[in-house]
Design brief:
This protein has one domain. The chain is mainly alpha-helical. Keywords: Membrane, Transmembrane, Transmembrane helix. This is ABC transporter permease. It comes from Oceanobacillus kapialis.
Length: about 240
């Protein structure tokens, strides 16, 4: 418990000292404010109503991206400072540390995601689609965090990798502009499935459930794969 308390206290200090982390923490809320008040004006002014699903899916994918990169950089700092080795010999252990680090961005993403869908989204999803989009984006944040710490050797590499990971938010463009079933090639990308739910008819419940379940399965597999890679890298 003392190790967990230290982690929480350390997080607060780190976020307070680092303007980048602080901006990342409040960034999704600022994004939601932008979508709530500026996007409707742009849609009317420039007649973008045909792109509502595209805009809604693009902006919601930015939430796990921002939160996931923030958590990933914190993990990279702790790995560079060998703090993970310290937690490995406490009752928290490495697995407990990792659970905390993955749970935190997931919870933040859920809170921001619900606020976005209920208050700011340009389109309204059905209850079934919403109940699947939220866990999908919640898993997206830990996946992005794990990508950074499992693939990058240090924070410099992590910064470069984060730019590449940022391209994942553009998957809605593939869904919108690539015709027919061809865009399902993008299904190998975890963010595809959350975005795809914005383009499915709410009345087609069986398709919504199929897409959601496939997305959850792929995201879980990604988390398991990246977790094993992370644990091997920190041994």
């Amino acid at each position: 418990m003392s190790a967990l308390y230290y982690l929480i206290k350390s997080d607060m200090k780190q976020i307070y000292r680092d303007p980048m982390l602080l901006i990342s923490l409040v960034g999704p809320f600022l994004l939601i404010l932008f979508v709530r008040f500026m996007v409707p004006f742009a849609v009317v002014e420039y007649d973008l109503s045909a792109y509502n699903e595209l805009l809604a899916s693009f902006f919601i994918l930015l939430i796990p991206l921002i939160v996931g990169i923030m958590a990933g950089f914190m993990m990279l700092d702790e790995r560079d400072e060998r703090m993970i080795d310290y937690f490995a010999v406490t009752p928290l252990r490495k697995q407990g540390y990792l659970c905390y680090r993955l749970l935190l961005p997931g919870v933040l993403t859920v809170l921001y995601g619900v606020l976005y869908l209920e208050w700011a989204s340009p389109v309204s999803l059905s209850v079934s689609a919403t109940s699947l989009v939220i866990p999908l984006i919640a898993m997206g944040a830990p996946i992005i965090s794990l990508c950074l710490v499992a693939m990058a050797a240090n924070k410099i590499e992590g910064l470069a990798l984060s730019k590449g990971v940022g391209l994942l938010v553009f998957i809605p463009i593939v869904i919108y502009f690539v015709p027919g079933p061809l865009h399902f090639v993008g299904g190998i990308i975890p963010t595809f499935w959350a975005a795809k739910l914005f383009f499915v008819e709410a009345s087609n419940l069986s398709v919504v459930l199929l897409i959601g379940c496939l997305g959850v399965l792929l995201n879980v597999l990604c988390i398991l794969f990246l977790t094993k890679r992370f644990l091997r890298k920190t041994d």
